[in-house]
Model the fold of this input.
Amino acid sequence: MPQSPIRKLVPFAEQAVKNGKSIYYLNIGQPDIKTPKIALQAVKDSKIDTLAYSRSEGSEIYRQKISDYYKKHDIDVSHEDIIVTTGGSEALLFAFGSVMDVEDEVIIPEPFYANYNGFSIASGVKVVPIISKIEDNFALPPIEEFEKLITPKTKAILICNPGNPTGYLYSKQEIQKLAAIVKKHDLFLLADEVYREFVYDGNTHYSIMQEEGLEDYAIMIDSVSKRYSMCGARIGCLVSKNKDVIQTALKFAQARLSPPTLAQIASEAALETPQSYFDAVIDEYVERRNTLITELQKIEGVKVAKPKGAFYCIAELPIKNSDHFAQWLLEDFELNGETIMVAPAGGFYSTPGAGLNQIRIAYVLKKESLIKAVNILKEALKVYKD
Ligand SMILES: Cc1ncc(COP(=O)(O)O)c(C=O)c1O
Done:
C-alpha cells in the first residue's frame, strides 16, 4: 500500500509544532466551514436506546431522501439505485470490487485523488494513467489517447468531477465523449462526484447520471463529507441504475454489515440544509480561490491552473522534488515562527516521476491565512536549494 501523500508528512508537522512553529495546513481537504446545525441537532435529538446496525444498503428513508436530493439536481434515480457507504472511500472500494477482478485495469486521468492508488492496490487492480496537463488546465485528454490504452483487461474509466487535485470541471461534451468510449468498448464509467456543489463562475455540473443511454455503464460515487463539511460522519453512497452492479455492491455492503447509524441520522437531516448555506459557502470558496491564484501568480516561476470547482489546485514550482521541499518547509524553514504544510503532488500520479515539481494546495483556510501562507511559500522558494 502506498502512503497517503496528504498525510505522510504529519509526523514532521507534529514535530514542527512541538518545536514551537505555527503551521498553515494547506495539505488536507478538511474544510474549516461549519457543519449545518440541523445535522448535529438531529443526532442530539435522536431518541435511540440501542445503537443498532442499520440495513446494509443504508436506511430506506435516508435513501429515499437522497433520491429526492438527486432529483433536484436533474438526476433521476430511486432509492433502489443507492447503497449508503462509510464515506465515498468505501463506495470507491465497493465500485472497484464490483466491476473488476484482480489484474483488471482502470484508466484514470492523472493527476488524480491520491487514494485511488491505494484503493486499486487494495483491490488488486492496475491503474492505467492518462496524463492531463497543467498547460491545458487539466482538460480531458483526447479520446484517441484513451483508446490507445484500452486492452482486454480494461474494465473501467474513473473520473473525478469536479476534480481533486486539479479543480477541473468536465463539460457536458467531455462527459459525452467518455460515454461514447465506454459504450463502444463495453466499460464502466465511474465518476467521483463528491464535490458536485463546489462549482464556480456560473458553470453547472453535468453528472454522468444525467447522460441518457449510460444507465448500464454509469456508477457514481458520492459523499456528505465535503457537501456539508461532515468529513467525520463517514457517510457516502454508490449510485447506479445497473441492477447487477447494485446487487454485487450489496454483497460487499453485507460483508461489512452496515454504514454508521448515528451518522445516517445526521446525513438525513443535513439534506434539509437551505440553499443559502451553499450560496454562502460557494462565495467563500470563490473568494479564497481568487485570492490564492492571484497570490500564486505573483511568484516568479510558479505555474498554476485556475480551478473551476472543488477546493484544490496544483501549483508547479521551480523545484525538482516536492517531497523534499514539503518536508524541508516543516523541518528547516520558518518565517516569523510560521510555516506551511503542502501535499507533494507525486502521489497524485501513478506515472513514475510525474508531478515531482508540483504541490497540491487545498484552499480550506480563510483569505487572510491564505495570503500569509502564499507569502511563506514565496520566501521559502527564495532560499530553498534542491
Ligand atoms: C475526490 C475524493 N473522493 C473521495 C474522497 C473520500 O471522501 P470520504 O470518504 O470522506 O467521503 C475524497 C476525500 O477527500 C476526495 O477528495
The pocket of pyridoxal-5'-phosphate is lined by residues 29, 87-89, 113, 160, 164, 192, 194, 223, 225, 231, 236 (CB under 6 Å). The radius of gyration is 21 Å.
